[in-house]
Design a protein that fits this description.
This protein has eight helices and no strands. By secondary structure, the protein is mainly alpha-helical. The protein has one domain. Helix 2 runs antiparallel to helix 5 and helix 5 packs across helix 6. Belongs to the DoxX family. Keywords: Cell membrane, Membrane, Transmembrane, Transmembrane helix. InterPro entries: DoxX (IPR032808), DoxX-like_oxidoreductase (IPR051907).
Length: 179
Amino acid sequence: MTPHLSLYRTATARLEAADWLLPSLARLLFAAVLLVYFLNAGLTKLGDGPLGIFSPPTGAYAQIFPRAFEAVGYNSDAFGLFHWAVVVAGTLAEFILPLLIVLGLLTRLAAFGMIGFIAVQSLTDLYGHGQWDALGAWFDRFSDGQILDQRALWVFLLSVLILKGAGPLSLDRLLAPRS
């Protein structure tokens, strides 16, 4: 049994030495699974023209403030500076944070911001849009709950980046002072 344990320990020691692999794969997986999702979501909140970020369409308010939008008779002109600022900030976050993660620039901060964004997104889906059927449940036989199952995996992936950083193939590493 000892030769088998020795072989196992040798193999796992090599995996532990490859500490660079986990954050690199986490960023690659984020790019493959979530980058286009968030970029497309941001595109739905852009107004017309090159400065469309600063003139969100009514659909942007409907996505972010569904109940408040209904309360004002679906008139986005009834919203004030606060609502506009939240929509613009949220839209910018949907573009900037994912790109920072993929580039590996300010990765820990960007991943932390994305976790906050996902929390707000989930709460808006539940309380704003009333999508309680998308909640799902943990420890059941179904893995398709959009909020608890899917977004828990997103948060776990981002947590790896917070704990491990961006890895060696990143702008964070390139810009870090040499020690």
